[in-house]
Amino acid sequence: MSGGRFGADFLSTYEEGIKKEWVIGNGLGGYASSTIIGAGTRTYHGLLVATPENSPGRLLLLSSLDEEISVNEEVYKLAVHKYPDTISPTGFQHLSKFIRYPFPLWVYRPGDFIIKKKVFMIHNSNTTCVLYDITSRREGAVLKIFPLVSSRDFNLTARAGYLSFFQRAGLSGVKLASSTGFTFSISSNLQYHPEPVWYFNLEYDTEMQRGLNFQEDNFNPGWFEGELKEGTSRFFVAASTEDVSSFTLEKVDKLYLREANRQNLLALDSKLIEPFALKLLKATDPFVVKNRSSGENTVIAGYHWYSDWGRDTMISLPGLLLIPYRFEEARSVLNNFSKYCRRGLVPNTFPAFGGDPVYNTVDASLWFIHALNRYFAYTQDFLFLTDVWDTVDEIINFYCDGTDFGIGMDSDYLIRQGPQLTWMDAKVGEWAVTPREGKACEVNALWYSSLKTASYLGILLGEDVSSYETLAAGVASNFEEAFWNPEDDCLFDLIYEDETGSLIKDPAIRPNQIFAVSLPYTMLSPEKEKAIVDRVEKDLLTPFGLRSLSTDHFLYKGQYLGDALTRDTAYHNGTVWPWLLGAFVKAYLKTHGYEDSNVEYMKSILEGFDGHLESAGIGGISEVFDGDYPHAPGGTIAQAWSVAEILRAYVEDVLGIKP
């Protein structure tokens, strides 16, 4: 096993095969995804999850393609489905190899046949293509491919009683219209035979474990069929929200080559040559998409279920777009969020991928200023800096004067905010698990760095920045006294007033304080910065990131699993977050020095993800890991800021490749 290649030992059992998943994107927020044995274990798994223009979110349209080869009395079925108390068919028994790159490829060896199946998506199109190369040593064999379809929100399940389809069949394909109001087509160079059948009670193991709905029905409108010649035969199936009836094998081959070349160019443009960095670079591409409503670029926070989140986007931007030299897309992302800035707040999220923005975040606007600074460092794009300067000024003015959600500056120059506005924002019903209402240490570290950043950029533009400097000096004069915890030699996480009006300083050891060291502009002495890093290393560092809470705290939860309540309770109370390693690496090298031994130490931590790239979401980095050993991965199988910050830290801080 290496480079996304898995042999029969990983594919021979259902239990082993469903542990590893894959996902590829289409540049629009749509994707194709499943497990390496082709068994769907999530409501999110499907070969075509699309973002149609008339849809408020992502729709699962094509669940799977079930292939079978028959010759005489023998029938070889390649599909894998879970039903109550049974798995049928068990196509993984014929699977000899899975290869992730450049696109998912399965190699089956049933009897006298070798089937190579490749899945790819057309960039900027809600279209999935599947290519088959089938070698037969026998005459008279017949291939049948049964598409299983749906037309539902990708978060949900659907039953036959809820969905119905009208199909218009042709010789080589079918156009389907669903009762939910969406149309799509499936085409092939095989002959199509309409014969509607429902598949009932399909089960999704991962959703069962997560305490969610895990059973549904799929519709099979008919099948594609063709004879296999002795030697090699080639076929394709294409599914799309567009008309693909004119697709030919030659066209699909050209589209495959075009998409492969596009991905190869991303690697060439990045100028990266180090193997681990190139692996991470491959993982960045699915997150960069077009915002359907604005036409600008944005970032999908994670696959499968996230849309574009402001905080995640700004933190991810350097790793996803600046390290790979995708400057035009980086500018588009910043422009997109700048256009939606309201009362000094950039959106927290665009719900349902294109819905009205939600602004409930205290730090996304400050991360916007940070991301803009990093963009300018890489590009020296004075023109764009001029274009968005008003947004920077608006953010600072509203943070000073006060804006929505209780966000504003107190008389001590520090920023306070209402509940559930920091990145630790898990909520169960109306219960905010980690509300953090008050003054958060990382928010005020960001506030100071943003003011100094604005001052630096403003001077370059010839702006009067004296007010920014005055504000920054005020923050610096109060930050240490407010947040320094002499007992633990680190920062208090939060300052707030309790029900009686008494001032409370929360001594919980959390990773948020690392930003008081890692950001471009900081306020503490070198001795105190090093003390923070040493405390975080001692209490929070794991091989896969920083714990969100120290293990000796009474709220600590060491495992992130179970139903929504159990998972959300642990989400920011001990669960490990990989993206925080980016800040830790920068802070560690800043305080301990860039000697070879320290750089090698940080390099070894980051390269520890090399094995993980082949263990959960193949080629990606998971959203979270358990706080307890062995730190099992959880959350989304591919998270933007996980990939982005590991790549950024590796390239900038370890390899020393900086603008």
Give the spatial strand order of the biggest sheet.
1-9-10-11-12-19-16-15-14
**What structural class do the secondary elements suggest?**
alpha+beta
**Structural domains: how many:** 2
User: Given the structure, what is the number of helices?
Assistant: 17
Distance between the termini: 36 Å
Percent of sequence in beta strands: 25-35%
**Count of individual beta strands:** 37
Mean pLDDT, all residues? 95
What percent of residues adopt helix (DSSP H or I)?
25-40%
Shape: elongated
What low-confidence regions span 5 or more consecutive residues with pLDDT below 50?
A: none
User: What is the architecture of the largest domain at the second tier of CATH?
Assistant: Alpha/alpha barrel
* Estimated radius of gyration: 26 Å
CATH class of the largest domain: Mainly Alpha
As for the CATH topology of the largest domain, it is Glycosyltransferase
Q: Tell me about the biggest sheet? A: 9 strands, antiparallel
Description:
The longest helix has 22 residues, at 249-270. The strands form 11 sheets. The chain has a 9-stranded antiparallel sheet, covered by helices on one side. It has 17 helices and 37 strands. By secondary structure, the chain is α+β, with helices and mostly antiparallel strands. β10 and β11 (113-121) form a beta hairpin. α14 packs antiparallel against α15. The protein folds into 2 domains: 9-261, Beta-galactosidase, Chain A, domain 5 (Distorted Sandwich), CATH 2.70.98; 270-652, Alpha/alpha barrel (Glycosyltransferase), CATH 1.50.10.10.
